[in-house]
Design brief:
Number of helices: 4
Number of strands: 0
Radius of gyration: 15 Å
Order of helices and strands: HHHH
Shape: elongated
Number of domains: 1
Structural class: mainly alpha
Strand content: under 5%
Largest sheet: none
Helix content: over 70%
CATH class: Mainly Alpha
Length: 119
Amino acid sequence: MKYSDLLVWQRAMDLVTSIYQITATFPGEERFGLSSQARRAAVSIPSNIAEGHGRKSSGAYSNHLSIALGSLMELETQIQVAARLEFIGDKEVTTILAQTDEIGKMLSDLKKSISTQSE
């Protein structure tokens, strides 16, 4: 199975698209600030899923999934900052946080299954 066949990777890629679309509406002065940080955190999620999958070691894979989870939490925080600064509305926040919640559960489940396989 390729990493791109993983549903969690596909959902994470959808999240990247959503983040790029939402951050495109941020004020211009945020181009190198919050917008850039959110985009990097979002891209880090599927990137770490792919990199960990390619390592062919359950320990390395699990570590990369942990990094992806950390990036997911970072992104959630950045979305909440954007909401407080009124760069995005409640509807966008709800949509993004629903995506991050789903991906977080999927990452946790994948991490557990990898740990179980290596025992």
